[in-house]
Amino acid sequence: MTLPAAAAGRFTFPGTGIRVNRMGYGAMQLAGPHVFGPPKDRDEALAVLKEAVSLGIDHIDTSDFYGPYVTNELIHEALAPYPGNLVLVTKIGGYRNDRGDWLLAHDENFLRRSVQDNLDRLTLERIEIVNLRMEGPDDDIAPPMRVMRAMQEEGLIGHIGISTITPQQLQIARDIAPLVCVQNHYNLVHRQDDAMIDELADAGIAYVPYFPLGGFSPMQSAGLNEVAAEMNASPQQVALAWLLARSPNILVIPGTSRRSHLRQNIEAAALGFTPDQRRRLDSLSG
């Protein structure tokens, strides 16, 4: 039986043998408001995770600084012992203080402690893929990347990804260690990474966009809504389907804290566009 998430097709992370459906799930929204504190409905959060896996999701994106600690604890409670095909991808390089502020932290001791915290809360001996989160173009990615490479050689992490990075940081990172994915802000109207996506596709490296509906102007939203109405789909579904159609190395990880919304997101994997619809969507960034 073909599960709904499989309609998006499959992707193999380079040099790993790890193969996932291109429709994944981002666990960030399972935490409380502003990704801080416990979920509003713990039972529903656990049910979302279980249903995601039952519908074919085999790639879940998480981090110990979501909550903090909340999403990893929920994932463990809902899904452990984990299905053999489930790939848990986490992110390090930041933390939340008692007020919920997002703060950057790239020193070696912190990065190592972050990996260990993820391992402990997820009850894993190794995390297959860990993303290093950067903050801006002026951040020096080389020192934390060298720590990531050392932890990979020690067997704590399997493979390395990077997040919120520039083309220059990407090149520096690739000179230090092989990468399997890049996670950046990208959508129909926020297209600054077009060249990067194509470069990564040529190298077989995954590109994982976040904020699929972020930054739309009223006119751009109207254009998206028009195509969505023609397709009898939601704007969110069309935006996700466009990302999947943009390049075969794009993996989407839409998040939600409701099962009904989860199913809607996964249904986007089966949507297809006419040439005219695709042209109109492509033109929204202009």
TrEMBL record:
The protein's name: Oxidoreductase
A Pfam family it matches: Aldo_ket_red
Keyword set includes Oxidoreductase: yes
Domain of life per record: Bacteria
GO molecular function: oxidoreductase activity
Keywords, in A-Z order: Oxidoreductase
One cellular-component annotation, GO: cytoplasm
Annotated InterPro entries: Aldo-Keto_reductase, NAD(P)_OxRdtase_dom_sf, NADP_OxRdtase_dom
Record domain NADP-dependent oxidoreductase: where: 22-284
Keyword Oxidoreductase attached: yes
SUPFAM superfamilies listed in its UniProt record: NAD(P)-linked oxidoreductase
